[in-house]
Every structure is written in structure tokens, then in C-alpha cells.
Amino acid sequence: MVCCVRCSKGCKIWCGVTAILLVILLVTLVVVLFLTVFKLKDPHITLQSVKLEGFKLQLPTLKLNVSLGIVVTVENPNHGSFTYQNTTAYLHYRGTRVAEAPLHEDTIPARDDHNITTSLTIFAGLTKFRDLSTDFSRGVINFTSTTTFLGKVKVLNLFKMKATVKSKRQKETSQFRNYPSIWHSRVQIRNFNWDRAFLLLSSASFVNTLGCVSHRERDLLLLLPLLRLLSSMDLHVRPDHCLPERKGRKRKLEEDFEDDRQISAPPTGHARDALLSDVKDQVTVLDSTFSWKESDRAAAKRATHALADLAKNEEVVNVIVEGGAIPALVKHLQAPPQAESDRLQRPMPFEHEVEKGSAFALGLLAVKPEHQQLIVDSGALKHLVDLLKRHKNGSTCRAINSLIRRAADAITNLAHENSSIKTRVRMEGGIPPLVHLLEFADTKVQRAAAGALRTLAFKNDENKNQIVQCNALPTLILMLRSEDAAIHYEAVGVIGNLVHSSPNIKKEVLLAGALQPVIGLLSSCCSESQREAALLLGQFAATDSDCKIHIVQRGAVRPLIEMLQSPDVQLKEMSAFALGRLAQDTHNQAGIAHNGGLIPLLKLLDSKNGSLQHNAAFALYGLADNEDNVADFIRVGGIQRLQDGEFIVQATKDCVAKTLKRLEEKIHGRVLNHLLYLMRVSEKAFQRRVALALAHLCSANDQRKIFIDHHGLELLMGLLGSYYNPKQQLDGAVALCKLANKALTLSPVDAAPPSPTPQVYLGEQYVNNATLSDVIFLVEGKRFYAHRICLLASSDAFRAMFDGGYREKEARDIEIPNIRWEVFELMMRFIYTGSVEITLDIAQDLLRAADQYLLEGLKRLCEYTIAQDISLENVASMYELSEAFNATSLRHTCILFILEHFDKLSAKPGHSHLIQRIIPEIQNYFVKALTKANSNNQP
């Protein structure tokens, strides 16, 4: 028994110890598992894509709403699933929250990936709008997203633990903790037509607008061209260490070369040192990998691509050159020497790829003029010309096509606006292979070759001649008929540069059959091709009169007139240029007007673009030379537009003045009779336009015929009486003023009238002299001695006083009750001497006295003096004064003043009443003036 009891106790102790050990082991195992296998690991959050879904611009507060669709992948490396609740992702731009995106509840399986798709809208106010536009122009946008995932991790389907997702690093990773997730990404704008955007922003008519708008409006105007193109953009994520992309390009117009370049701040300080070190590393790679070993070729390819990527940012180009990249890149424009073992390799590793990368990088470096000569001096031209011939070895593959295209583009950029390099290209034999490539099967190669020839031909006669001698014209003319807009645009550009300032080549181009294809390009879908075609037609028509006729006969006029109404300012400018040259032929002048060219050309006179305005004015000058167009000018209101236009440059002002003079010279004979017929039978509005035009353009000899005999004056008076149409009133007043100036050889306000010669001239010494005096006037108690013989000869009033039945006949002393002494003395002095100095302060009283005593000569002198003081404020009272004292000359002067200053006078109160009151007198005045003028001109 004792033994059994002892065994039982020992067994219990052993079981207890075993249980304790098992518990400890189990706890240890659980702890180890939770610290190792089941430990919460950092999930990886990756931004897969960002896609632009739309944008909205809110006015007038100037807010931009951009909708983005994003896909984020969350990789859960844990052995437990994670179920998170509904949450929100916040997007920050430059430290400011600009968007929110809802994220709905979901579960991420254990050790699995999970895609989260959502959309968000960026709300950018004015300040961020400017910053956003700057990043757009750089091609890179930096956003920061902050998201907190609140949920539970389920382990072994037994335990659930609360957790929060947060990214600790500023890239694409995150881990479970109690604070938000932060990931950073750099979004690059690809497939974006930067050339189109910069072309829109650099237009003349657009830049001229910026000077007259507010800062807020200017921000909007500068960004609108970019916003118009946003809908065609694709956004792709790229790593942080990559640089913004820029694509170097050549010029777009004959004399305007534009680079499709990225604008960003140049690197400084540590960033510059790091960049320079990176460049030197790539140069070292290139210097040490000039062989056909596959590893060397791969390394060289990566190095050329890295340098090209860096060179896409123009601000770092100087650093790349400083790092010695040019000699290394030039070296790799040629294939490495082949060893015996290399010749057995087929295909060769990375064949053509390294050379292509080198040519591309050098082309980007050549966009800076100071680097062009450095590249050429390093021997690049010879190798580039050799690359143009790579296809002749019989192989045709995409790599060769791309290589040739890059070589042609590099030559284009090297020769851009550099006459010496253009000559070097010719001397290196670069023109014949470029001409040969115009017939290449790959259209991109054709386009690149044409672009290079276009640059080489610009302002270089020797290059032009060699291009023609290489028989490029037939192929170029075939390219003009291509349906590919990029092809025919480059072709017409080459021909345009060949023809410019080269009459002999122009003849060869026409003989080769270029005229009809160029005319066909006027209807191209490509506005740049249309513009180049219009410019080329203007060059064709500049000197050859037969060519002018042929261009019109082959159907160029209608599309050119349609182009005048395009929103593209440069397109309108070139169209007006071509029409101006075509309008130097008499029959073309009538044809252009008949096809509706007058109205759009006249509208272009309102343009704020000086060059466009001048081209339109020159075309109108040509059309005005044809008598058949005069009536059309008047019918569409052309005379008023020419007279009222505000012209920017002096040359345009002179051209418009010559146009009006040319039209004026046509107003006689057949043209005048036609206009008089229209003024009689047409609608009232057209009749008035004819009357207005004739008032400005007719000769003085025809005024009575037009305005009295054919009632043109009534039409003008009708305009003046149009109280509810101020513009018509003003036009009528200006026309009447012009008519009066032609009718009168000397206006009353121009000079003082001569004093009449008195019939009895006694002289100054007898004024108020008692000697031989036979009559005394009592004025204000003072005695004034006079002589009857002098008074009798001076006026009918004194003759009636002394020879009639009045009491003054026999009186010795005569009292003058209503005239001041100073006025009476001046009046008597005029009677005795025939002249007197009249001051403004006494002129009106003296006029009253002169009218009372019928002294016409003195009245005219008084009227002249008073007329010098006529102003907008007193013209109404002056007119009343002229009526009160029958001062005809003063009344006529008031009428002319009112007509001359009608625009300013119309703003004064009582203006309408005054005009209504004087219209009958105005008509009487013109009837007399025109009749008198016509009588004076009779032989």
C-alpha cells in the first residue's frame, strides 16, 4: 500500500511537471510563431496607373477640377487576411489637400495581391492652378497621397487583431501601424503634343492680347491652350529618379523654328554635382565599351539612352556637354571594329541600337546653338552621313529605319540657322543620300529626310541648287499629293524654301508640275500645310503675271477666301498674302471680289495683328484698282471701314490712304453713272451708302450733279436726322463736313475777311474831329463829331437817317441811346478808315451795332472775331446770336463747327434739339454752297 501511494504521488508529480513543460512549450511556440511566421509584415502599396478621365474649368472664380482614375495594388505578405473598413484617401499637391477618394470596405487575402480602383477629383484654385500649369509645362506632376486603413487581421481563422495600414517610406511600401499611409509618385505626361501647345501660346494675335487683360484673365488665357489638349493626354507612372521628357524638334514655319522643349530650372549646387558625376559615369562606360561584345554593346546602349534621357531637359544640356559626352557619343556613331570572331556572329548584338542612341542624344544636344559647332568639330557629320546610307547593305529592319531617322533629325538640328554647318553638310556629301531617302519605304524616314532638306535649303543657294540637281523635285511633288499630312507638310516646306528668292528654281518647280498639287493643299486637313501652300502660291504669283492667272484658273481663289475666315491667325495672314499677290492682275481683281473676298478682307482690318492687317490692306489696294469693284466696295461698307479703321503700322496707314485715293480716282464716267443709278433705284440703306461714299470720293465738279440734281443731299440729311441711330448721324455729319470742305475754297473761319473800300475815305485824323463837322452824336453824355458826307456813303441806314423824312435829317445834335461809347467809337472809326481792331469782349456789342446800322463789312469782321471763340459749350448760343443779328457768316461757321465736332457734341445735353432746329438751315446752306461752287467751276 505504501508503495502504491508513493507511485501515485510520483506519477502525479511527473504529470504536473510534464503539463507545466507542455504549457511552457506551447506558450513558447505561440510566441515564436507570432514573432516570426505570424508577425505583421509591411504590406507593399504600389500605384499601378493614373489615368486622366476629364477636367472642368469653373469661371469666374477660376477653379480647375481634374478627374483622375487610379489603380493601387496592395500586396499582403502576412499569413492572415486583413479586412479593412470604409476609408478615404487624401491627395496633397504642394502641401495642400486637393482631392479625396473613397475606398470601400474589402478583404485582402493572406499572402495575396489586391487591386483597389477608385477615382478622385482635383480641385485647384488660382494659386495651385498656376503651379499646376508650371508642372504641366515641365511634364511632371508630384502628388502625395495619405490614406489610413482601419481593420482587423484574422490569424488561423481564430484570432482577430485590430490594425492600421501606413506607409513608412516615401515610395511604394507600407506597413501596419497606428498612423497614416503615405506614398509618393511622380506622374509623367506622355503622348502630349507640346509643339502644338507652344505654337498656340506663341501666336502674335494671342501675345498681343495679354497686354490689355487683368492678372487673373492672363492666367486663364495662358492656360486655355493647354486645357484644350488635356483630353488627349495619357498619364503614366514613372520612377522618381527619372527626369522629365523633352523631345527636340526643328522649326515649323519657313522662318520660325520652334523647339518642342521642356522648361525647368537648371540644376545647382549638389544636384548639379550629382548630375555631372552621373554624366561622367556614362561617358566612362561609352569610352570603355567600343566593341562587339554583347555586354559592351548592352552597356553602351544603356549609356546612350541615359544621356539622351538627360538631354531631353534643355536646362541640363550644358552639364552634359561639360561632362565630355560629345566626343564619346560621336565615337559611337560608327560601328566598332570587327574581330575575326565577331564576323561569325549573326545577328550582331544590338546592331544599329547604339548608333541610334548616340545620334538621338547628339540631336538633342544640338538644340543649343553654342553646341552645334562643337559637335561638328568632333567629326559627327561624316558619321551621320554614313548612317544615312546604312540601308544600302541590303538589310531593312525597324532598327535601321529608326537609326536613319535619328541621323536625319540630328543633321536637321545641327544645321538649324547655322549657315556654315549647312555648307559642311553639303561638302560631306549629305544632300544626295537625303534626297534618295525621300523615296524610302518608311514614311517616318521620308518625313525626317524632307525635314533635313528643308533646313538645309533655307537661305543657302548652293544647297538649293544641289537638291534640285539631285532630282529631288519629282519626288517632292509626288509627296505633295500624299494623304499623310506630315508628309505633304514637309514636302511643301522644302519646295517653299527652294523657291524663296530663287527665280530660276521657281520656274523649274512650276515646270515640274507643282502648281496643282500646291493648290490642292489649300484644302488639306493640316492647317500648317494650308499655310505653307498659301505662302508658296504667293511666291509663285509675286512676279509672273501668267502664273497669277493660272493659279486663279486652277481654283485657288475659293479655298484662299475660306482660309481668311479661319481662327488660325497665321493661316489668315498667308491667305491674305497670296490674295494680295493675285490681286495685281485686273481680271483676278474682279474674280476675287465676285467670289466674296471683299468682306473677309475688310474684317481683317480690325485685327490686332499688324502683319495680318497689312496683308489684308495690300490685297484691298489691289482690288480697288478695278472699276468693276468700286460699287462692291461701297455696297459692303468698305469705304467706312477704310476710313474708320485703327491701323497699327505706318505702312498699313499709307496703304489704306492709297486705296482710298485709288477709289477716288475711279469716281467718274461709267463708274459715277453706275453709282448714280444705284443711288436712284436701290434700297434706302444702299442709297445712303452710295451718298456717303460719293461725299468723300467725288470731285468738286460733280457735287451739284450728285447732291442737287440726283438728290444725294436729301439722303445725307436723312442720315443726319436719324435721332435713334447715332452711328448714322455721325456718318452723315462727317460726310457733310467733307462735302463742305470740297465746296468752299475758303472757309469763313480760315481768315479775316477784307474790309470794303469806303466810298468817301476821310482818314483817321477826322475821327471825332470838330473840323468841318456838320453833325454831332450824343453817346452816354459825350459828344462825337462826325461828317454827313462820310456817313451817307457808309450804309443805307445813315442815308435813310439823313435823306429820309426822319427828324435827324435837319438836326445838328443826334442822341444815340442804346450804344455804349466804346462801341460807337469803334463803329465810327471803321466808317472813317475802313478797318478796326476788334477784341472779343466787345465783338458781340459791335455786331449788334453793325447790324442796326447795316454796316456789312463791320459785321463780317465782328463775325470772324466771334467765330474764333466758338466751342462745344457755346456753339448753341453762338448760333442763336447769328440768328438774332442776321449774321450769315457766323451762322455758317456754327454749322460747319457742329458738323466737324459732331461726335463730341453728341454727348452734350440738348444736342438732339439743336440738330433738329438747324437741319433746315444746314440744307439751305449746302444748296447755296454747292450751287455756287458749281457755278464758279463753269468755264
From TrEMBL:
Question: What sections of the protein cross the membrane?
Answer: 12-38
Keyword Transmembrane found: yes
Q: What is its main location?
A: membrane
Keyword Repeat listed: yes
Q: Where is this region: Disordered?
A: 247-270
Q: Where are the ARM repeats?
A: 324-380, 379-429, 429-464, 471-513, 555-597, 596-638
Protein name, per record: BTB domain-containing protein
Topology of the protein relative to the lipid bilayer: Peripheral membrane protein
